[in-house]
Amino acid sequence: MLDIKVTRTTHPAKKPEGPITSFGKIFTDHMFLMNYTEGIGWHDARIEPFHDLTISPACVVLHYGQEMFEGLKAYYGVDGKVRLFRPIMNARRTNSSNRRLCIPELPEEMFVEAVKAIVAVDRDWIPTDPDTSLYIRPFIFGTDAFLGVAPSQTYLFCIILSPSGAYYASGLKPVGIWIEDDYVRAVRGGMGFAKTGGNYACSLAAQVKAHDDGYSQVLWLDGVERKYIEEVGAMNIFFKIGGRIVTPMLNGSILPGITRDSVIQVCRSWGMEVEERKISVFELIDAQKSGRLEEVFGSGTAAVISPVGKLRYVDEVMTIGDGSIGPVSQKLYDTITGIQWGKIADPFGWTVEVV
Length: 355
Ligand code: PLP
Ligand code: COI
Fold this sequence. Notes:
Blueprint: E1 5-6, E2 30-37, E3 41-49, H1 60-64, E4 67-69, E5 72-76, E6 82-85, H2 87-101, H3 108-121, E7 133-142, E8 154-164, E9 175-179, H4 197-201, H5 204-212, E10 217-221, E11 229-232, E12 236-241, E13 244-248, H6 258-269, E14 274-277, H7 281-289, E15 293-300, E16 304-313, E17 316-319, H8 327-340, E18 351-354
The structure holds pyridoxal-5'-phosphate and 2-OXO-4-methylpentanoic acid.
C-alpha cells in the first residue's frame, strides 16, 4: 500500500463552465508526485496543489529525452460512479517503456494506486457532459543534472489531470489521413513500441506537412521498406476489407494500444474475423479500387474510435465510405464508450471503479 501525503490547495481554481470541447488545455487543482533515487528506490509519494516544476538547465530529460508518458481516462458514469478503463494495461506498458529507456520500473499496483488516489482527490473535476472525460497523464523523467549520456540516477513520476472533450475537433466525422512516404517514425529495434516523447517529436515535421495539405493526421509506413502500414500519430489503425477486420500486427515499432486490444477483443466477441498482420499500402490501394475497402478507423484513448474518410498516398487519394461513420466503427464506438460510461454491461471486466 502506497503511503501518499496529501496537501490540498487553499486556492481552488474556477472550474470551466459549459461542456468542455478542448483536449489537454485545462488542468485540475492537484498533481501526484513521487521521486526515485538510486539506492533508495521510489519514495515520497505525495499529492500537492498543481504547480510548475523546477529543474536544472542541465537536467537529462532536456538534453537526451529520457522520459516516458502514459494516457488514460476517468469517466463519470451515467450511474454517478467514476470508472477507469483497464489501468493495469497502462501500468504494464509503463514498465515496457521504462525498460527500453533505462528508467526504473514501478510496481504495477503502485501505478494504479497512484492514479486512483489523484483522481479521487480531483473527482469534482471529472466532466459530466456527454463525450467528455478526465484525461490522465502519468509521466516519468530523468532529473539528474549531468551532461554525460548515461541513465539518470534520479527520476520524478508525476500524474496530471485534464478535463477534456474530443481529441479531434471533428468528433465522429471522418477525417482525412496523409500516408507519409518520406519521413519515418520508428524502425525495428528502435523505440516505436514505447510511449516516449522522442517518438512524437520526430512526428511533428510530417504532421505539419499533412496539416498544410488539409489532412488532420499522418499514417506512418514501416521504416525499412516504407511500404507496410504502421499506425497514426496518436492512434492505431484498422481496416475493414471484404468483411474482415485487419490491423497491423505488433512488430516492435508501433504502440501496443489498449484501445487496439479492446477493439480486437470486442470484434472477436461478435464473431468477426480479425487479422493482425502486415498490410502494405498497395494492398490498401487495390482494395479501395476494387470496392473492398469498406471502413477505416483509428483507435486510441484520446481519439476513442475515429473514422477515416480519406487516405492520401503520393498521387493516390482514396475515398472511404460516404462521408459518415461506418457501421462497424459506430458499433465499436458505442460499445467501448458504453462500457466506459457504465451505460452497458462490462463483460470483459475492464473497468475499475474509483471510490
Ligand atoms: N499509437 C500512438 C502513437 C499513440 O500515441 C496512441 C495513444 O496513446 C495509440 C497508438 C493508442 O494507444 P491507446 O489505445 O493505448 O491509447
Ligand atoms: C492517448 O491517446 O492517450 C495519447 O497519448 C495520445 C496523445 C499523444 C495525445
